[in-house]
Write a structure and sequence with these properties.
Elements: H1 2-13, H2 20-51, H3 62-68, H4 74-89, H5 92-98, H6 104-110, H7 119-125, H8 131-141, H9 161-165, E1 193-199, E2 202-207, H10 211-223, H11 233-253, H12 274-284, E3 304-308, E4 323-327, H13 328-339, H14 341-381, H15 386-393, H16 404-412
Helix pairs in contact: 2-4, 2-5, 3-4, 4-6, 6-8, 13-14, 14-15, 14-16, 15-16
Length: 430
């Protein structure tokens, strides 16, 4: 049966009977059809992504859906999602893909640099260019320094494509550095780390590490000198991973051989006791529990959250039966299904504003402390001891933007409050 099937396949795809002109016309027709199909596919992906239909299908991200459900390769999914998000914001891309003026690689290269002001000109100038030509175009419009910096940020590993593509963050901005999609596409850089199968249940791990990490690794080898005299890296890593897993499990869901019950119940209705977290994690197998209507369970094991089966606002309790594991995407999706997309968007925006406010306050406190620390040295040079200098310098936290001289004068008021006629320091220099 198989030989006959093979012959049938060969005959179906054998084109030896075609004349040269027919083969040439057929090839051109198929390429044109492929471009049109690609543009249509990109449009469908863009709309599907915007509606987040991957969530009810049981996938945590558009990338996961493309790889798991549509069976695209990782690279193909990355390119098409990047193009879809760019084309949704700049619809000229659809026509350019359909008539062959742009290819997917070109769109991926251009996406981080597109803005409302330059999209038409940049896309027009990129027409029918090769990948190298697109790179030259970008270099001409957005030149970078030819000098190699002392510190260079390493590109994101292609292995992080799922995290990069998970949020629907859009494309564009005020410039190349402002665009959320400015992450380098997989074809532009080599991976910083790679794990490949070498044999049955054996893998090769290639990774670039810094000097600090190298020193830690050497130190671990020294500590294991009696147990592992050879310092075999594979066995060292295995033991290091065991120790890290134990630490992370204890922090994440209170994993312990002898769980201790909470003796002081929390008044916070959202608080989940450690023993409940541990039991839920064990029951759910450390995996998102969302199940689609088709019966597909989400496979996500990252960014997991403890979710109340019944919302806290509706009386949900933090019991083993009342808590489940959900990935962040499906946790938010469940809340949107219950409370509405608009309500949850407002809640997230309010949380982001609050976080930004806390960040600004933290930065302001840090600047104030730095301004105070800068005053200590001048005060010590005037003869005050360290404790006196620190107490006096604390007065300068209220005026972090003042000059150093004004801050020193303000600090001296700690020793001589206004109204007292005395301006001498311990060594009589002021």
């Amino acid at each position: 049966t198989r030989p006959r099937e093979g012959l049938a396949i060969m005959r179906a795809y054998s084109l030896s009977h075609l004349s040269d002109p027919d083969l040439q016309r057929g090839l051109a027709c198929l390429v044109a059809r492929d471009r049109t199909t690609t543009a249509s596919l990109i449009a469908h992906l863009a709309e599907f992504d915007d509606r987040r239909l991957y969530l009810p299908a049981g996938y945590p991200s558009m990338y996961a859906y493309c790889v798991g459900e549509l069976h695209l390769s990782e690279d193909a999914a990355y390119k098409r999602i990047t193009a879809a998000r760019a084309a949704r914001q700049f619809p000229l891309i659809f026509d350019a893909l359909a008539d062959g003026r742009l290819h997917l690689t070109a769109v991926g290269l251009l996406a981080p640099y597109l803005t409302a002001g330059n999209a038409a000109d940049l896309l027009g100038a990129a027409a029918h260019r090769t990948k190298a030509g697109i790179e030259e175009l970008i270099a001409g419009h957005f030149p970078q320094s030819e000098a190699m910096g002392l510190v260079t940020a390493l590109p994101v590993s292609p292995g992080l494509a799922e995290e990069q593509l998970a949020p629907r963050s859009g494309v564009g901005g005020s410039g190349p550095t402002a665009a959320p999609t400015a992450q380098l596409a997989p074809e532009r850089v080599g991976p910083l780390s790679k794990m490949t199968a070498a044999a049955a249940q054996r893998y090769l791990l290639e990774v670039s590490i810094g000097q600090t990490t190298q020193e830690k690794l050497r130190y671990i080898q020294d500590l294991l000198g009696h147990e592992l005299p050879s310092g075999d890296l594979a066995r060292v890593l295995d033991q290091a991973f065991d120790a890290l897993i134990e630490k992370l499990e204890k922090r994440k869901f209170a994993a312990t051989k002898r769980p201790r019950r909470s003796v002081r119940p929390s008044k916070n209705p959202r608080h989940i006791p450690a023993q409940v977290k541990h039991a839920v994690w064990e029951r759910d197998g450390g995996q998102c529990t969302f199940v689609s209507e088709a019966g597909r369970r989400c496979l996500e094991r990252k960014l997991l959250e403890f979710d109340h089966v019944e919302e806290v606002a509706r009386g949900g309790r933090a019991s083993v039966a009342g808590i489940r594991l959900r990935c962040r995407a499906h946790n938010q999706y469940g809340a949107e299904c219950t409370f509405g997309v608009g309500f949850m968007r407002e809640k997230r925006e309010a949380a982001q504003r609050a976080a930004e406010s806390r960040r600004r306050e933290t930065e302001a406190r840090a600047r104030a402390r730095a301004a105070a620390e800068e005053v200590i040295a001048p005060l010590r040079s005037l003869g005050f001891n360290n404790q006196e200098a620190r107490h006096a310098a604390a007065l300068c936290e209220a005026i972090p933007e003042a000059s150093l001289e004004d801050r020193v004068r303000r600090a001296l008021t700690y020793f001589h409050p206004p109204g007292r006629v005395s301006t001498s320091a311990p060594n009589g220099t002021l």
